[in-house]
Each structure stands twice: as structure tokens, then as C-alpha cells.
């Protein structure tokens, strides 16, 4: 036996998503950041931040309800992609610990956006481009070539 909801979504939900907010952009240190805005400027501010695997529209169903009393902003954390700051910090700490023990960290198989973000991060400075690769095949080729040309083990 299946139950169908013929009434559709609740009215409050429908009203909220009918107001998608205003798409806005701001440049921060050369990076174009997208955010959504509801309400009027000059009112007290309220900022919604999403977690990993989300985006600014994550708040579409709730943000409009605050727009009468607040200037509401939902920031698109595009630089985070699917690698959160805490995970990046853990990788940095883990890389240092392993390197001190003689084990070298290589990052392989990251999607292009995450790879680009990591390359610009402190971890990217530590690893350099020679230890970050889009595919396993490229990483293996680079590793084997480094053993032959440098006669060393990474």
C-alpha cells in the first residue's frame, strides 16, 4: 500500500522558494564570490553559511522568512568545493607527521576544482605540483620518472 501526498508541498515552503533571492557577486582578492541576498540593505545583517557538498541555494526555503527584519545573505563558499577547511588542515598535519617519518604524501584523483584549490593552499605549497595529480596513471609515471632521473626514493 502506498500513500500519495496529493496536497503538494506546504504553503510556507512554496512561498519561500518563490523568492529565490537576488544573485550578487563581490570580488575578494581577485576571486569572484557569489552570494544570495534577501531583504533591504541597512537592516541588521544575518549570514547563512553552508557546509560541505552544499551551496548558497541551500537556504532558499528558509532565508526569505527573515527578510522582513534582516538583510539576509547566503554566501556560496565556492573555494571550499568538496574538501572542507578542517579536512585540508588535517591533511597538512598528516603530511608533516608522515614526512617526518620518511613517508611522502601524494594526492591523486581529485576533481579539477578541488585540485586547483589545493594547489593554491598551504598544502599545495608543501606538496608542489610534482605530488598532486588528476589521475593515478600520471602520478605513477611521475613517480617512476623521479626514481630514474633523480636516483632517489620520494
3D structure, described in words:
With 154 residues, the protein is an alpha/beta fold. The protein has two domains: 11-75, no CATH class; 85-150, Transcription Regulator spoIIAA (2-Layer Sandwich). Helix content is 34%, strand content 19%. It has five helices and six strands, in the order αββββαβααβα. The chain has helices spanning 11-17, 85-100, 112-119, 122-127, 136-150, and strands spanning 22-28, 31-38, 45-49, 71-75, 107-108, 132-133. A four-stranded mixed sheet has the order 1-2-4-3, with no helix packed on it. It is elongated. The mean pLDDT is 79.
CATH arch. level architecture of the largest domain: 2-Layer Sandwich
Radius of gyration: 22 Å
The CATH superfamily of the largest domain bears the name STAS domain
- Side by side, the strands of the main sheet go 1-2-4-3
Number of strands: 6
Q: In terms of per-residue confidence, which ranges show pLDDT below 50 for 5 or more consecutive residues?
A: none
Helix content: 25-40%
- Name the shape in a single word: elongated
Return the structural class.
alpha/beta
CATH class of the largest domain: Alpha Beta
Do you know the CATH topology of the largest domain? Transcription Regulator spoIIAA
Largest sheet: 4 strands, mixed
Number of domains: 2
How much beta, percentage-wise?
A: 15-25%
How far is the first residue's CA from the last residue's CA? Answer: 61 Å
Give the overall average pLDDT. 79
- Strand and helix order: HEEEEHEHHEH
Instruction: Output the number of helix runs.
Output: 5
